[in-house]
Design goal:
By secondary structure, the protein is an alpha+beta fold. It contains eight helices and six strands.
Length: 246
């Protein structure tokens, strides 16, 4: 059954697929999967290679490559769920790609990917895939089908070069094993919800003349939230040398 599912998912254009029993998933900062899916047995984790667009010095163009991929990932998630329900009479819950928004997702896709044998953690606290390195994004489908976990990757794939630490403009990786999320968000999401609140505070206090001048400052905020281009930093992905030529 696993190989049939894996073959189908790869036929949709996914780059890799891993399987993990829910009992093998261990994430300290997310809720138990059973809390939102009591009969859950397995997690199917799907990996998609990041486009080299992430190397662009233009952050909007870099993010556009991610948006293109995310659209495919969401479409495929529905197709995979539809396939599992129709072929195996399964119940499913799809887990979307996570973005660093300061909150906690229902499932840590990094920990799910580790449990499913799709890589292990690097110094940057991201998953390093054995073929794609850090340039990979995950989504997942949780199901009540009982599937055996794939073998975890125990080999340390990180070369401990500290390039990610030294190239982090927010200095968010200085403490090993921890990402300072607020520092990361300040640089990676300059047009986030927090930035909007700050703008509104200034706008409310401004005079009518000052408000007219502030319209130009609001445009990047509007654009980022309308088109999903809030994420402005890909240094973790593009600076990591592991497997980046694959």
């Amino acid at each position: 059954m696993k190989e049939k599912i894996r073959e189908y998912i790869k036929s949709l254009g996914a780059d890799d697929v891993g399987f993990a029993a829910v009992s093998d998933y261990d994430s300290p900062n997310t809720p138990k999967i059973e809390s939102f899916f009591p009969k859950a047995k397995s997690i199917i984790v799907i990996a998609y290679k990041e486009l080299s667009t992430c190397e662009s010095p233009d952050p909007i163009l870099a993010m556009n490559g991610r948006l293109d991929k995310d659209e495919v990932m969401r479409s495929n998630a529905y197709k995979i769920g539809h396939y599992l329900e129709g072929k195996f009479n399964a119940k499913i819950v799809s887990i979307p790609v996570s973005l660093p928004r300061g909150g906690t997702s229902a499932v840590s896709l990094r920990h799910a990917a580790f449990a499913a044998g799709l890589g292990n953690f690097g110094r940057h606290n991201l998953i390093i895939h054995p073929k794609f390195g850090t340039r990979v994004t995950f989504n997942a489908v949780v199901t009540d089908i009982e599937l055996e976990s794939d073998e975890k990757i125990t080999k340390d794939l990180c070369i401990h070069c500290n390039i990610c630490v030294n190239n982090c403009p927010a200095k968010a990786l200085d403490e090993e094993g921890k990402t300072q999320v607020l520092k990361c968000m300040h640089v990676s999401q300059p047009f986030s919800f927090i930035s909007q609140l700050s703008f509104l505070d200034k706008y409310i206090e401004a005079s009518p003349e000052e408000r007219k001048a502030m319209i130009g400052d609001y445009w990047p905020l509007y654009q980022a939230n309308s088109f999903g281009t809030q994420y402005y930093c890909f240094n973790c992905l593009k600076s990591c040398p592991v497997c980046q030529n694959n």
